[in-house]
Design brief:
Elements (H helix, E strand, L loop, with lengths): L5 H6 L11 E13 L4 E12 L5 E5 L4 E8 L3 E6 L3 E7 L6 E10 L5 E4 L11 E4 L19 E11 L3 E4 L2 E8 L2 E13 L5 E4 L1 E9 L2 E8 L3 H8 L2 H12 L8 E6 L6 E2 L4 E5 L15 H9 L7 E2 L7 H9 L1 H9 L1 H14 L1 H6 L17 H17 L1 H15 L2 E2 L2 H12 L4 H9 L5 E7 L2 E6 L8 E6 L4 E7 L7 E4 L5 E4 L8 E3 L6 H9 L4 H7 L5 H9 L4 H9 L4 H10 L3 H10 L9 H10 L3 H15 L2 H8 L7 H13 L1 H13 L4 H14 L7 H11 L3 H14 L5 H5 L7 H14 L2
Helix pairs in contact: 3-4, 4-5, 5-9, 6-7, 7-9, 7-14, 9-10, 10-11, 15-16, 16-18, 17-18, 19-20, 20-22, 21-22, 22-23, 22-24, 23-24, 24-26, 25-26, 26-28
């Protein structure tokens, strides 16, 4: 469905221009055949629509493909035209509001949009598979469509794949059947969604049940060979669905929730409506479950089913509407499952994670070159941080009641920043214009500077465009003696009187996105006092690098939360202390944190411990960490060979060993890497081998490495091609320039970035 003005939507697209959007898309029906040998797709896509202009020109986005025919059902005269980027249907004698169905028959062997991964590259999967990735504007490469987020439609998919394969898509499964050598899967999404969310995953998949929510099935789709690890990583999603449904006041809105895992994925996950796609790199075996987690990724993509899928940005300028909320919501999973301390620590990390992008750009802007530029620290932690501050300003109960109304008002629609604030202002009865202007349309964030002034301080806010109130506390050794609110700090310095032996702390709960510059004469006792009397563990994270290491060790021994203990442990550089934690703690996460923190210099007395752990532990993450330390200490070929001949789930010992040989024995590394590439070693090893070949180059008089990298750079498979182009840049031979230049118009944004970077390095 189309919501809002098409003119306004076009105005927000940034520098790219699009043909006028003169129809309301109602339904997209795909009937496609996947050819795994040719890595190609063909079929018919039928767009059911209504014109929104007299004699409309209907424009459908497309990538490189063959358009075999275009047919239109409806009254009027029609002329069709196919260009490099669009299929046009020019209507004559067609009034505004006319229903039409435009069917396009096509075939394509795309570089983007759909990705075929043969079995030899699909580790740890045992078979070939294919998957699509539409966001931001890549679904056009595997079928012609309206490829912009501001028009929502229902969708239907009929997928024809080799017999024995399964297919996952949006919505409800209507049926499956086998005809000859083909398996035919039929899916229907009967509620509207933006077209970038249309998804397909096909292969030797097994659907693993993971509970239900009010009768709606929740599943984990794993390729054969990865079932146990996928179950370990993502089990319990039904509990997260329940948490979000209660938190938002809106039940999970779709027919099912499934998440599949795929290799060679360019993202961590993608929130395709009712069928999230996750990287296969996120899964892990049961013996690593104590120290590994996919819950953050799981919770983020699930949150998108409400924020991003149910409610969607109309343009990439407002992408925080999707990503900010999907980064915000998982903190409340943490609070419910791990407690307040973990919640506040995670929240502080989110605040810190948005500062770099906030200094560069305001949250909402249109001066980007490609949509991917908007998916930055502003969109993710920046949006989440601002929702925390808004929640603090409104009160949490009022914030969540406003959220429920917002989801009800704009569910299955598109929302701009202005519409979001209009909804929250109406429901909460709060005036939010200043909040919106400062935090969404102003670059930067407040910086408070404290200056000693007599018996007290002056406080000044030095960032232009911000005029905010900020909380403060004054404390002595035993208690907080006074709380207050400073206002108007951007206009002039505000004076705060502080008694002898007292400490002034700005924003004591770390609820405001800001920096605070304290006077240099604050002593260790001031910071320790502030830590001890802090409002929460977000504030302790703000102070953790100011207190001494001895203080951190003492705090670790106190009955603090496991989350805070972990953060303290990461900042302790005392081998004896860390060894004691590693050997005596019953908390596996603390043990591995201690292991990562131990020094691993040549001749270290920790060598025996590293060797013992590598040989004895079953936890694969700890085994990998122990090997990394052991190799750093010994720094010899025998230990590298040991890692090369050891197999862990993610093959980290082998990739680490290969890197060591690349730095220390180029001939050995070349032999290993050539064999790994040619014989299709499991995915992580093969990708590392391609990279290593660029570093070690050819032996004198040979071109074997160069020719192999060139061959990979010419290939259609994105992941090895991308790695090979980077490797050719490392190799440094200008003869690679014409080969890389021939890929300059690659369909995928990430590939174009790699190509541009490689050419810049080679042309110096």
């Amino acid at each position: 469905m189309l919501f809002g003005s098409v003119i306004a939507a076009s105005a927000f697209f940034g520098p790219d221009t699009r043909p006028p959007h003169q129809f309301d898309l109602l339904d997209v029906k795909l009937d496609v055949t996947l050819d795994f040998k040719a890595e190609a797709v063909s079929g018919i896509v039928s767009h059911k629509l209504v014109t929104v202009a007299k004699d409309a020109v209907l424009a459908f986005d497309k990538g490189p493909m063959t358009i075999q025919s275009v047919s239109i059902v409806g009254k009027g005269k029609f002329k069709t035209e196919s260009t490099a980027k669009n299929v046009f249907v020019r209507c004559t004698g067609v009034p505004n509001g006319t229903p039409l169905t435009v069917s396009i028959k096509y075939s394509a062997a795309p570089e983007a949009g759909i990705y075929f991964v043969p079995a030899e590259r699909a580790y740890p999967s045992k078979g070939s598979l294919a998957y699509t990735q539409g966001e931001m504007e890549d679904n056009r490469y595997w079928f012609p469509t309206y490829d912009f987020p501001n028009d929502k439609a229902t969708a239907e998919l009929i997928a024809r794949v080799p017999k024995g394969m399964s297919v996952l898509s949006n919505g409800k499964l209507l049926g499956t059947k086998t005809v000859g050598n083909q398996a035919i899967w039929h899916w229907k999404q009967d509620q509207p969604m933006s077209t970038y969310l249309i998804s397909l995953v096909a292969g030797d998949y097994i659907a693993i049940p993971d509970g239900t929510f009010k009768g709606k099935p929740i599943q984990i789709w794993a390729p054969k060979g990865a079932e146990d690890a996928a179950r370990t990583a993502f089990k319990g999603t039904d509990k997260l669905v329940e948490i979000y449904s209660k938190l938002t006041g809106v039940d999970y809105p779709w027919a099912k929730y499934a998440q599949s895992v795929v290799p060679e994925f360019m993202f961590g996950g993608m929130e395709n409506l009712s069928c999230t796609t996750q990287t296969i790199g996120a899964i892990f075996p049961e013996n690593a479950a104590e120290t590994s987690s996919a819950r953050g990724l799981n919770a983020h993509e699930l949150a998108h089913q409400w924020f991003g899928d149910l409610i969607t940005t109309p343009t990439w300028a407002h992408i925080w509407v999707n990503e900010g909320w999907a980064t915000f919501l998982p903190h409340f999973v943490t609070r419910q499952l791990d407690g307040d301390s973990a919640f506040h620590i995670e929240r502080f990390g989110t605040y810190e994670g948005c500062k770099g992008s906030a200094k560069e750009h305001p949250m909402v802007r249109t001066n980007y070159t490609v949509p991917m530029e908007m998916f930055d620290g502003n969109a993710y932690p920046g949006g989440a941080t601002r929702m925390f501050m808004l929640m603090r300003q409104l009160s949490e109960p009022k914030f969540w009641s406003s959220t429920k109304v917002y989801l009800g008002e704009y569910g299955r629609k598109n929302v701009t920043t202005e519409q979001f604030f209009a909804s929250f202002e109406k429901t909460s009865s709060a005036k939010l214009q200043d909040f919106r202007k400062q935090w969404f349309y102003t670059k930067g964030y407040p910086n408070f500077k404290l200056t000693k002034a007599g018996s007290g301080f002056t406080v000044r806010q030095t960032t232009a465009g911000f005029d905010v109130d900020v909380e403060y506390v004054i404390m002595n050794n035993e208690m907080v003696t006074r709380r207050g609110l400073l206002g108007g700090t951007s206009a002039e310095a505000v004076s705060v009187a502080v008694g002898a032996g007292e400490t002034l702390i700005i924003d004591p709960g770390a609820w405001l996105l800001c920096d605070v510059s304290y006077p240099a004469d604050y002593k260790a006792a001031d910071w320790e006092r502030a830590w001890t009397l802090a409002d929460n563990d977000a504030q302790r994270m703000r102070l953790i690098d100011r207190v001494s290491q001895d203080f951190r060790k003492a705090e670790f021994e106190r009955p603090r939360s496991e989350a805070l203990k972990g953060e303290l442990l990461r900042r302790i550089q005392d081998d004896a202390f860390l060894v004691n934690v590693l050997e005596t703690s019953k908390n596996a996460k603390h043990q591995i944190t201690a292991l990562y923190g131990l020094s691993a210099n040549k001749g270290s007395k920790n060598e025996a411990l590293f060797g013992k752990l590598f040989n004895s532990v079953s936890n694969e993450e700890m085994k990998n960490a122990a090997f990394d330390k052991l190799l750093s200490v010994r720094n010899n070929a025998a230990t590298a060979e040991l890692g090369w001949n050891t197999t862990t789930w993610n093959l980290q010992t082998q990739t680490r060993a290969l890197s060591w040989f690349a730095a220390n024995d180029k001939d050995r590394a070349r032999t290993m890497a050539l064999k790994a590439v040619k014989e299709f070693a499991p995915g992580p090893v093969r990708m590392q081998a391609i990279s290593v070949l660029g570093q070690v180059k050819d032996a004198t008089g040979s071109r074997e490495v160069f020719d192999l990298l060139v061959s990979l750079a010419k290939g259609r498979a994105y992941a090895p091609m991308d790695q090979a182009i980077n490797a050719l840049a490392d190799y440094g031979d200008k003869r690679a320039i014409p080969v890389i230049e021939s890929r300059k118009n690659h369909s995928l944004h990430f590939a174009r970035n790699t190509i541009e970077g490689a050419l810049a390095r080679l042309q110096r």
